[in-house]
Write a structure and sequence with these properties.
With about 160 residues, the protein is mainly β. It is about 5% helix and about 45% strand. The longest helix has 9 residues.
Length: about 160
């Protein structure tokens, strides 16, 4: 039943490969993380302005047993500078089994000093023990270690 709810979201959720990815094909959902987790859909909600909170909800499908102690990161960035972030996973990755579907909600507080303009939103997984990120694949080709969601426009107060 949950799978039927996620499918309509995927149609309206653009994704992009990170800069420098050696890939000629555009990114599309679902996106494969570590041949274990697929980003199926996402939603970004909230009016982006200085001091506000943006809600990023990601929807995932488990395709293989993922590594232990994974954290999901969601960053709002400009260039290489992170202006807001959330790095956690509300469930233990070791409890996930193939066929499971879950969602993760991240609340990202924009700083009062954030300037108007366009910002990137990126997501990925990393090991809590080593910091190593899960690779992102397009088929068997490793593309990078994160994927970009739709850009976020920050407005003035």
């Amino acid at each position: 039943a949950r799978s039927a709810e996620v499918t309509p979201l995927a149609c309206d959720s653009p994704v992009a490969w990170p800069p420098g990815a050696a890939q000629n094909q555009p990114a599309t959902l679902p996106v494969d993380f570590g041949h274990a987790l697929q980003l199926s859909a996402y939603q970004i909600e909230g009016r982006a302005a200085p001091g506000t909170v943006i809600t990023v909800t990601t929807y995932w499908r488990v395709t293989a047993v993922p590594g232990p102690r994974l954290a999901l990161f969601t960053h709002i960035i400009t260039g290489t500078h992170i202006i807001a972030q959330a790095d956690h996973l509300a469930i233990t990755s070791s409890s996930l089994q193939p066929g499971d579907v879950f969602l993760q909600v991240h609340l990202l507080q924009l700083p009062d000093s954030v300037e108007r303009g366009w910002y990137e939103v990126e997501v990925g997984f990393h090991s809590r023990d080593t910091g190593t990120r899960l690779p992102v694949y397009d088929g068997d080709a490793q593309i990078g270690d994160r994927v970009y969601l739709r850009p976020l426009r920050v407005w003035g107060r």
